[in-house]
Design brief:
The strands form 5 sheets. Strands 9, 13, 15, 16, 17, 20 and 21 form a 7-stranded mixed beta sheet that branches. Strands 1, 2, 5, 6, 7 and 8 form a 6-stranded mixed beta sheet that branches. The protein has a 4-stranded antiparallel beta sheet with strand order 11-12-10-14. The protein has a domain at 33-183: Glutamine synthetase, N-terminal domain (Ubiquitin-like (UB roll), Roll), CATH 3.10.20.70. A hairpin with a 4-residue loop joins strand 20 and strand 21. With 724 residues, the protein is of the alpha+beta class. It contains 22 helices and 21 strands.
């Protein structure tokens, strides 16, 4: 079957498909966390002293009592087997942004040939997956294969049910034989511990004697595209890279603003309900679902959770979205920019810090100008983002996210902080040394008696800001849709730890000199705004004026590409930041630069190879067939005065030649390997390979607009985005 026949058959199969009926949903109370080994389930099946010890470790971060592991393992095993599990898996998160699992059976063969179920405390606490094939960035030699997984008790065990069976899943960290972190979870746990220590010290200085453990929280909005599997399977670029390397924009895109929050297509809603049921059974608090801005784009967003659990749940959400999509005949695309010319997909990370005794430490209250606790924590964020903003850019730097940053509701690569009009005014008052008031939020009167009056927020939102305050939290909008949220959370927690420590040092010194708390606090905040207020910006982050002002007047960095951003991880002050907070050693930090730079290079070069292949073997033959058809009719048509086909043939021939000539150039630069450094190799990818890929695409997309539709082999944007 030729490519174009396959494309038209796909359209027929989609439009003639048998609809899946929506399932009658179970009651939330029946579904909620039914597949999770929760505290309630622990309490029901564990001895009181064992449960008390586990609960203390989970809630206060105390040391795990390994001596009770055997009792806990037996209880988890019995619960999992009652749910139908025959296998267990240590689940971990290597430096690949995906989830890894090593499955083992609950089986032990006895001397008499019989088999029993077995799951010891040692098997629960420690595993040993082969670490030789995971990214390590030079931490281990090629010959060294041993790696360890270790039980993370703060993230609950659960069972994952698929059509192929049920597996008990145990969240773990993943480390090398020499103890370095090879994963995303270990640094996140360390960053939470470091931030807790610094925050507790500051709260004590503010007069709090009862301070519960402070933790960061996360609510990660997940954007994604759905494409029918019949189309996706006819697009090698979608299958291998997650994005379309070619594709002419549809005449209708998102310009009518009719998709955002529109009525969810019936087929998509059935998919969403299936996803949500799976999430609820796993205790993942999915709260919001809606159409996103681009056609074919959607979003799911959860409630806030403790950062470590939220990170695990986010990984599970991505897995469930992909797996459930297959059952509904879709392919779920988590790439940041699957389609050119329309919105890409982000994963806005809503981040805050708080505890059980003082609550949300980033809640300004009704009078933020006099809320010292909030002001000091918010001021610490401002200082941290100014000092380490390039680090935040580096932790969201990927080949795919480079396509998205800078337009279509994605923030620019310049990291700034948006506070909103009320808080910006408060901090400007602090900078002037004359703090008097907080602007009133005001009441919304809609002018219709039957409509309610309600209090509006004290500040608007800014969709162009990469780091925006949104009422009681900061929203880091630059995170990519396919990324793990752990990296950004680690960076934010570590930056805050450093700033809270600085604030506490300053406050302690001033109190030691006899200054009162208010005077000391406002003096520190004034210093923060004088030294670091340049990072605060409330205007249009897309404007040329801001880009010029940010770089030339405020000294902020504009790290446009991953090749520009990742070297930040090698800078001395970043190494010192992670070492002094105990989050990453110099070796671990260097390994991350090596891993992420290699991933960037591999992605660019893999995409370039596919561009060359598709241009030569798919697009060129289609253009050649069309030219052949035109050639057979041109002579006859010229006799009757029609020249359209001749002009079209000249255009197609010219575009085809330009495409093939550029493919040849791309092939030549792709063969270059004599680089003096990884940084030079990345810049070659960013400045040479990628522009040539874009040129090939430009000519190929022009051909799509000229070659007869019945000869074009690849599913088009108008089909993939609008046929569901």
């Amino acid at each position: 079957m030729s490519g174009n026949e396959s494309r038209f058959q796909a359209i027929c199969q989609i439009t003639d498909r048998e609809k899946l009926p929506p399932k009658v949903p179970n009651r939330l109370e029946e579904m909620w966390a039914s597949d999770v080994f929760t505290l309630n389930k622990m309490q029901a099946c564990l001895p009181k002293d064992v449960f008390k010890s586990l609960k203390k470790t989970i809630q206060t971060g105390g040391k795990l009592d390994v001596s009770i592991a055997g009792i806990v393992a037996a209880a988890i095993k019995d619960w999992a087997i009652s749910k139908g599990a025959l296998y267990y898996a240590h689940v971990f998160y290597p430096m690949t942004n995906i989830t890894a699992e090593k499955h083992d059976g609950f089986i032990s063969v006895q001397g008499d040939g019989t088999a029993i179920t077995e799951f010891s405390g040692k098997l629960l606490v420690q595993g040993e997956p082969d670490g030789s094939s995971f990214p390590n960035g030079g931490i281990r030699s090629t010959a060294a294969a041993r790696g360890y997984t270790a039980w993370d008790i703060t993230s609950p065990a659960y069972v994952m049910e698929t059509d192929n069976g049920v597996t008990l899943c145990i969240p773990t960290v993943f480390i090398s034989w020499t103890g370095e972190a090879l994963d995303k979870k270990t640094p996140l746990l360390r960053s939470n511990a470091a931030m807790n220590k610094a925050a507790t010290r500051l709260l004590n200085l503010l007069g709090h004697s009862e301070v519960a453990p402070v933790n960061s929280s996360c609510g990660a909005e997940q954007e994604y595209f759905l494409v029918d599997a019949h189309f996706a399977h006819s697009r090698p670029d979608l299958l291998l890279t997650g994005r379309t390397l070619f594709g002419r924009p549809s005449a209708k895109g998102q310009q009518f603003d009719d998709h955002y929050f529109g009525v969810i297509p019936e087929r998509v809603q059935v998919f969403m309900q299936d996803v949500e049921e799976r999430l609820y059974r796993l205790g993942i608090p999915a709260k919001t679902r809606h159409n996103e801005v681009a056609p074919g784009q959607f979003e799911i967003a959860p409630f806030f959770e403790a950062a470590n659990v939220a990170s695990d749940h986010q990984q599970m959400t991505m897995t469930i979205l992909r797996n459930t999509a297959k059952k509904h005949g879709f392919v779920c695309l988590l790439h940041e920019k699957p389609f050119a010319g329309i919105n890409g997909s982000g994963k806005h990370v809503n981040w805050s810090v708080g505890n059980a005794t003082q609550g949300n430490l980033l809640d300004p209250g009704t009078n933020p100008h006099s809320n010292l606790q909030f002001l000091l924590f918010c001021g610490a964020v401002i200082r941290g983002i100014h000092k380490y903003g390039p680090l935040l850019r580096a932790v969201v730097a990927t080949a795919s996210n480079d396509h998205r940053l800078g337009a279509n509701e994605a923030p620019p690569a310049i990291i700034s902080v948006y506070l909103g009009s009320q808080l910006e005014d408060v901090f400007e008052q602090i900078k002037r040394g004359d703090v008097k008031s907080s602007a009133n939020a005001g009441v919304m009167d809609l002018g219709v008696a039957t409509l309610p009056l309600f209090e509006k927020d004290p500040g608007d939102r800014n969709r162009t800001s990469p780091f925006a305050f949104t009422g009681n939290r900061f929203e880091f909008r630059a995170v990519g849709s396919g990324q793990s949220v752990s990296g950004p959370l680690v960076a934010m927690n570590t930056i805050l730890t450093d700033s809270l420590t600085w604030v506490a040092d300053q406050l302690e010194a001033q109190l030691g000199k006899g200054n009162d708390l208010n005077t000391a606090a406002y003096s520190i905040l004034k210093s923060v705004m004088e030294d670091h207020g340049a990072v605060v910006f409330g205007g249009n982050g897309y404007s040329e004026e801001w880009h010029k002002m940010a770089v030339e007047e405020r000294g902020l960095l504009n790290l446009r590409t991953t090749a520009d951003a990742l070297p930040i991880l090698k800078e001395k002050h970043i190494e010192e930041l992670f070492e002094k907070t105990g989050v990453l050693t110099a070796t671990e930090l260097e390994s991350r630069f090596e891993v992420y730079s290699e991933q960037y290079i591999n992605v660019i070069e893999m995409e370039a190879k596919l561009v060359i292949s598709l241009a030569k073997t798919v697009i060129y033959p289609a253009a050649a067939r069309y030219l052949s058809e035109l050639a057979s009719t041109i002579a006859n048509l010229k006799q009757i005065g029609m020249v359209f086909e001749a002009e079209t043939a000249e255009t197609v021939a010219s575009q085809t030649k330009l495409m093939i000539d550029t493919v040849s150039k791309l092939s030549n630069v792709l063969d270059k390997h004599d680089f003096s450094s990884v940084e030079e190799h990345m810049q070659h990818c960013a400045q040479t390979i990628r522009p040539l890929m874009d040129q090939v695409r430009e000519y190929a997309d022009a051909l799509e607009g000229n070659v007869a539709d019945d000869l074009w082999p690849l599913p088009k944007y108008q089909e993939m985005l609008f046929i569901k």
